[in-house]
Design goal:
heterotetramer, A: alpha/beta, Pyruvate-ferredoxin Oxidoreductase, domain 3, Rossmann fold, 4 domains, six-stranded mixed sheet, 19 helices, 38% helix, globular, B: alpha/beta, eight-stranded mixed sheet, 12 helices, 31% helix, 20% strand, binds thiamine diphosphate, binds iron/sulfur cluster, binds magnesium ion
Chain lengths: 595, 341, 595, 341
């Protein structure tokens, strides 16, 4: 049996609130520093302490980032899931388990590494035994995979940034794990980690922090938020960065942060800030968007620059708050009653989280409308690889704001809602300026902003609004295309599926077919997507929801003659997508349609 | 030449569009007082932001201060929109109008939380005990037993917005009546001068749906049952106090943030506007007698406002230059270096 | 110039709050009693008194109910719209105007009937002059059109039901109008009303009252509502009928009516009532639906029978609250975050308002889900013709509720969310019963109703929910088809467009084409619609909104090969649809596609 | 044989599923009291409906009374859902649990309006001053200056839910502490016996995020700063009052709707539970001293409940037969005849 190098999945079963999180991050980071493209997914429960949590680390020289189809190395710490965790393992899986649970392991077909982690932890620090036990398994794994201790030390140091005591205890625990493996166990598996060239530019970061930084560099002036998983850490990250990056020389803040009483208030504050000329935003998840729906329509109709980030969790309703899904995309596109249409930015990695973080404000002010950022728990809360964020390459776009009498005089027959440029985007003046004031309102108004219920005025205003948003199609982030010259099968996908797409592609191509990819990065859809579809024989729209929401949008919007090419592959079970499952669903779909 | 105020503006500069409310509606009377008060206070109209929700009352910002920007938001959401606008541009003078439906029903949560944050604004509730614009259903401020033009008497207890505001720590709480022009003018002028949240709950009869005898919020009922806490005079900061004639009765003065004074002329027993307890007692006693007590109920100075708590830069956020909005490239490079460490 | 009999449009321009409403209804009713298929549309402003209001009466022997393309008889009472009202008239229009406004009329090409209505009103009753003036024009019109006074008297008596004084004054005023016409004016126009056979079964009623009665006969147990135009009169009508029809013998009520503090509370109450086993509903308009979105998802996911009627007004946002539109249909179908899908009943006339009023509760309890009723201001607040409502022909369907231990024992392996019948609809027990209690929740749960975050459980539950709603397609009200044998052009439409469709059809057929009609009466769509499309060469989806919302739903859901047949004709200006405008838009669309 | 209550049920019949809260969480202590109280009151578990919103606190209905139906609704919406359920089946015994975030922030409007309607329910707020489930942000009941485990001290004024409830006319308002088992048991038992809205605001420390010394809602702080208004004993209607040993000190009795009594044993000065003023004063004084006053603050009898105001038939609406739900054919025919007239 040959060595299996840098190609395996580790599943660590613990309970939340037991301190396993930092141990897992250290292990992930050490693997990452080995240059192995390691990635981690945290499957945590919707409570604070005591419920089952799994941390899944994928190591892959192919750069695959999705959780693997099966577990190669299982670490069993949690008595509550013990039986199931062990039952589900395939033969020959490595099982590292805490013997102090005193629970049985009756599988003979596994590679067993029993370790008295509790006892060992207590020896090192009786008070922190529970926490320390987690570092024991890190040491075991490191030794087993041959990860050098100095790399582990680096990861420990990074995790505890300067806290000497913590570094010392964790280091000691990891060494004791290593020693136990060397002295008490015999390596019976064939998994190894080999050092690869490590791109020094690389680092790991989660999408929420990346968006937060994007906002910071996007000139955010006000964050209003109401806590909700998985968006809270986005808000908390902005809160943490403002004092570091957004104070003036006197230590005064250029960004207000308001914990709202609920989502209705949070979005109201965003509108207020946008109306008064500042850059306001809020972040939330599905239930929050539902609550915000009424004011989302107000922003659309009064044409107030507004930004909302939806870090999606599993719906409908309260759903699975700590699991991931792309279930809100159709709602975002048309949220609120009446005829509405919103701009939605859809980053597919952390670099784009940063980029769209600042661009969202520019689009919002340029188009004077509601702009959504759409991510999900997987992209928002798990660590993804970045090689560094690009500093914004354009100045802030503050849109069509008239600041002086002269500005206004340059415009013939100024009116707040008069389309002088023919692009549907009209000029505004800000409160406080005294220039051409109007009463902004969600009710009918004419081109001068004066109340009106006239039918022709209403209709032409609505047509202008449509034109305005239509105009953004070629201006928003265009799709990322990776095309095979055969133009056989094209997969249209978006968002966090990016982490899995290459592996899906490889699985499909292993069957002999040629697969192109088109990643949608914004709504309304770019015409380039239409062209991509036209160029390809058949198209799969791949997404992480039940109803094929993007498929629905495409089917409505693409040229009629292209519709027959589209096929939907969509499902969601709350977990980050596994390549093999989606690949198999695609194959099944292709077969069903005999295409 | 028309008369002008200290900043050389005629009264006309403070007027608005033609009202579309029912002739005689209390809300129109309040609009007129607002026009007058703003003019007399010599506030630059362009510095004012008019905020409202939805309702007959919330329409009125179109009928005053045509030179000010305004935002007629959504039903019950004026406080949150004002909050955002407030931190966006703390130099704006927020003058907000809401209705009892807008504030006490759908908007009660935002009302409460705006008070907690102590927004720097004047919040006028045009309180008629009914939903005017949707044709006269009882609102949550209708008194138990009060009866509108059609239908059965109101069965539920009223929410007293003044009592609630005082309990929540609001620093300027007053009740008035659209028919008490003098008192209302003084209060609105003072509310504009106050730093922090000033709430004035103005009983404002709905002549179409709730102006019958059996209504506790009808014009006639309020006229007959209005107990004024004190006579009120507002002395602007630009009129040195000695110039004002001292009234014969006893009086007390409340100094406002911008240096203006509100002079309270004692009417009957003394009411200490610095005492929550007295304010709440006065409200409770009036309620027990089915009376309305009007005047400045409670006043407190120096509570930090939201923009202060937020420790914002001096320039309004809406006017910051790009340098202050986007940290420089080096800061990002440093951060990335740290991430890569 | 020959007589024009029973074929004209009267436009009455007044201000609201001036008492014109009762005069207009009397005129309409008198025309209706002549057997003329008269219909009336009220275009009123969003305030209480003083703003322009137009009442449009269409008289048509063809039975056309939509406002005509142009005005034949204009009555000018409102100084504020005087100039515009008169300017817009085509030559030879009859203009009856109140000379007491002292406003000029400089059109020589009109047929002018100047009447000092104010003065005449004052003579009859100085205090009520303003109100009485309105009855003067009724008298003028009656005399001019030759409507017998006894018919007018009937209409007056009906309007003021028993109030002798009012009847007397109004009758007097109408006679004085007639006399003025006879004595002072010369009939110069050629419009006449002739009596047609009057179906004694016919009466006029608005959709809101019809839905209200449907609810009353549908066993409604709780109405929660928050006032909003144009739905308030639905609630107020239920409020008025409960004491008449829904008290027990001791005068106690079988239906609670609660004025909620807002729409969030209104929908919460509906869920609470449904959860506890009663029939709860609320009614609202677009902004309310937006606010209710979160709990709509909760109803879907916890499977609680719930009914909401959306009487749509013009969106987005506050929009034009007193105007009509079909702008909420796509939102209703998928309201709330995550993957959701709701049943929507779409009545197209007042008889169906009544029928769907009671059926909504049966569907809600049968499918244990959110059921929307969808009407709009036109259907809800204008008077439509009915020949009588059919008494429900089925008993109440209370759905799968287990009441006794024996009920449960009959089911193998009972679980609240276990699909024992294979139709996706599971059995429930009610609080208070003590039978198999669960904690209903918007979070993940297994088939027994126990909290679970397991991915396969989540996924199969969601698949079952999809199956459940899918199963309703053939069970909900099926489309109404009116097919030509040529199967040339088919028009798919819904709701209040019913009032206009026949006239559109006639205009189109006048060009030589043959037009079939398919009226959608529910979502999710019936398979019959698919078949209708298949049978026809080309299809127009006709609707009163900007974005072609039903077109979008059809395009997503119909068989792929049929998609190319579909074409959207959609626009909205807040007014009830005029046949000529929509017919022309259809013709333009057909030309554009050269089909 | 385990001990059984008056209706022959062992305590186990009132238990629930295993808690998933943090070990030591105050909410678990409250759940245990609820179990005990319901058992001691001998309420049939199937007659109870457990209602809640969203939060750690709102999860607890899964951890008690497994034989009762429950509804874990949406964040802040428990009161409205309970309102609907209440009119649907007025015979249910509504036992609701909410959190301070669930009630005082997103849900404050529904809280207020449920009080106005006087729902017949027991509404327990498990108040820890933070949002536990979303990891410890301050809630609107956190005291100004109180400090949770991480982050800056709380800057905003607290909402005192008891004061608010009393002002709104709630007929049973109490404050307690998850650590005061005896007091809490008596109050919950009394709340269950009360007809109308009974609100018990229970300080319930969040051991994970808000149990440090500087927090006014930590276990230790509350233990040291809890001023009990009175000792409390609950005397159920099925235990004739004379059987109870009379305590040595003075006492007063409050008779509850079902014939039970709540006995208040005087501790220091007398507190008249029938006086709003005394209740509000007690709250204000405690607040000024950064103390918590606990006990039955206010009690009033005979206020009509929602189902009474609605004048509902005796049978729960959810159990009405078809004849009472659908008027007969003749009634429709008559109506149509009228329409056609
Ligand atoms: C979300 C929403 N619900 C309902 C309405 C309908 N609506 C308009 S005004 C109003 C009540 C206004 O009452 P109040 O605030 O007292 O103002 P008033 O008209 O009495 O001055 C309501 C319910 C709305 N516009 N939006
Ligand atoms: C609409 C909505 N917004 C936000 C959330 C996220 N959320 C869950 S629990 C909670 C706060 C709970 O606080 P509290 O009621 O005090 O309960 P505790 O956990 O402290 O017992 C929040 C904000 C949600 N579930 N729904
Ligand atoms: S309805 Fe009432 S509140 Fe509205 S404008 Fe008329 S009088 Fe005023
Ligand atoms: S986080 Fe706090 S409130 Fe939630 S379970 Fe843990 S201790 Fe209790
Ligand atoms: Mg009002
Ligand atoms: Mg809490």
């Amino acid at each position: 049996m040959g060595k299996i190098i840098n190609d395996f999945t580790i599943n660590i079963a613990t309970a939340n609130g037991t301190g396993s999180q930092s141990a897992n991050l250290i292990l992930l980071n050490a693997l990452f520093r080995m240059g192995t493209h390691a990635s981690g997914k945290n499957l945590f429960p919707s409570n604070i302490a005591g419920l089952p949590t799994w941390y899944i680390i994928r190591v892959s020289d192919y750069g695959y980032q999705a959780p693997g189809g099966k577990t190669n190395i299982q670490i069993a710490m949690n008595p509550d899931t013990w039986v199931e965790d062990i039952e589900n393992l395939e033969p020959n899986t490595v099982l590292i388990y805490n013997t102090d649970t005193r629970l049985p392991v009756d599988r003979e077909d596994l590679i067993l590494y029993p370790v008295p982690m509790g006892t060992m932890g207590r020896k090192i620090n009786p008070k922190l035994a529970k926490l320390v036990a987690n570092m024991i398994y890190v040491g075991i794994v490191a030794e087993m995979l041959e990860i050098p201790q100095d790399i582990l030390e680096e990861a420990i140091a990074k995790q505890f940034g300067g806290k000497e005591k913590a570094i010392q205890i964790n280091s000691q625990a990891s060494i004791s794990g290593r020693e136990f493996f060397t002295n008490e166990l015999n390596k019976a598996d064939n998994y190894y980690v080999e050092k690869r060239e490590f791109d020094k530019n690389q680092f790991l970061i989660d999408g929420n922090e990346a968006v937060a930084l994007g906002c910071i560099y996007g000139g955010i002036n006000m964050l209003s938020w109401y806590p909700i998983t998985p968006s809270s850490s986005l808000a908390e990250s902005i809160d943490a960065y403002v004092p570091k990056l957004r104070l003036d020389k006197d230590g005064k803040s250029t960004c207000a942060i308001i914990q709202a009483e609920d989502e209705l208030a949070a979005v109201g504050m965003v509108l207020g800030a946008g109306w008064a000329g500042a850059r306001g935003m809020t972040c939330t998840s599905g239930p929050g968007i539902s609550l915000m729906s009424e004011l989302i329509g107000l922003a659309y109709y009064t044409e107030i620059p507004s930004v909302i980030w939806d870090v999606t969790r599993v719906g409908p309703s309260t759903g699975l708050p700590t699991r991931t899904q792309q279930g809100d995309i159709s709602m975002l596109y048309e949220a609120s009653h009446g005829d509405t249409q919103h701009i939605v930015l859809i980053p597919g990695n952390v670099d784009e989280c940063f980029e769209f973080g600042w661009k969202a404000f520019d689009y919002a002010e340029k188009y004077q409308t509601m702009v959504f950022g759409f991510t999900d728990l997987d992209l928002g809360m798990n660590l993804w690889v970045s090689k560094g964020f690009d500093y914004p390459d354009e100045p802030l776009n503050r849109g069509k704001v008239l600041k002086t009498k002269e500005d206004i005089e340059k415009i013939e027959n100024y009116g707040r809602y008069r389309d002088v440029d023919g692009d549907g985007i009209t000029y505004r003046t800000l409160p406080g300026s005294g220039l051409e004031p109007i009463v902004s309102r969600g009710t009918g108004r004419d081109e001068d902003g004066v109340y009106s219920e006239k039918s022709d005025i209403y209709r032409s205003n609505m047509e202008r609004l449509r034109r305005k948003i239509e105009g953004s199609r070629t201006d928003l982030p265009q799709p990322v295309l990776r095309e095979e010259k055969e133009k056989e099968l094209g997969i249209i996908y978006y968002g966090s599926m990016e982490n899995t797409i290459q592996e899906i592609d490889d699985i499909l191509e292993a069957t002999g077919m040629k697969v192109s990819q088109c990643r949608v990065r914004a709504l309304p859809l770019s015409p380039e997507i239409n062209d991509f579809i036209r160029r390809h024989k058949k198209i799969i729209v791949l997404e992480i929801n039940r109803d094929g929401q993007m498929y629905g949008i495409l089917r409505k919007e693409i040229e009629t003659e292209l519709v027959p090419k589209l096929h939907s592959v969509a499902f969601s079970d709350g977990l980050p997508p596994k390549a093999i499952e989606y690949a198999e669903a695609i194959l099944a779909k292709l077969e069903a349609f005999e295409i | 030449m028309p008369r002008v105020n200290k900043i050389n503006q005629p009264l006309d500069s403070y007027k608005g569009g033609k009202s579309t409310l029912c002739p005689g509606c209390g809300h129109d009377a309040i609009s007129n007082v607002i026009i007058k008060a703003a003019w007399e206070n010599s506030i630059a109209p362009e510095g004012i932001a008019k905020m409202s929700g939805i309702g007959c009352s919330s329409k009125t910002p179109a009928y005053f201060l045509q030179q000010s920007h305004g935002f007629n938001t959504a039903h019950g959401r004026m406080p949150s929109v004002t909050t955002g606008a407030n931190v966006a541009n703390k130099n704006l003078n927020f003058l907000a109008v809401s209705g009892d439906g807008d504030t006490a029903s759908i908007g009660i949560g935002q009302f409460i939380h705006a008070i907690r944050r102590n927004l720097n604004m004047l919040y006028i509730v045009e309180n008629n005990g009914v939903y005017g614009l949707t044709k006269g259903q009882y609102s949550a401020t209708a008194e138990e037993g009060s009866r509108k033009r059609k239908g059965a008497p109101n069965e539920l207890k009223q929410i007293d917005l003044c009592a609630m505001a005082i309990n929540l720590g609001c620093s300027f709480v007053a009740r008035s009546f659209s028919g008490s022009r003098k008192q209302l003018t003084a209060l609105i002028r003072a509310g504009m001068s106050h730093r922090g949240m000033a709430i004035i709950d103005v009983i404002s009869p709905c002549v179409t749906f709730n102006n019958n005898e059996e209504s506790y919020k009808s014009l006639q009922y309020v006229k007959n049952n209005n107990e004024e806490l004190h006579g009120l005079d507002y002395i602007p900061h630009f009129n040195p106090i000695q110039e004002i004639e001292v009234p014969s009765g006893g009086y007390k003065e409340v100094k406002l943030h911008d240096g203006s004074y509100l002079r309270l002329e004692t009417i009957s027993e003394e009411h200490d506007v610095g005492s929550k307890k007295m304010a709440l007692d006065a409200l409770r006693e009036a309620e027990e007698k089915d009376k309305h007590v009007t005047g400045l109920l409670y006043f407190e100075e120096g509570i930090p406002t939201l923009d202060e708590t937020e420790n914002l830069v001096d320039t309004p956020l809406s006017e910051l230059p790009e340098e202050l909005l986007r940290p420089n490239k080096k800061s990002l490079d440093d951060l990335l270096t740290k991430f890569r460490a």
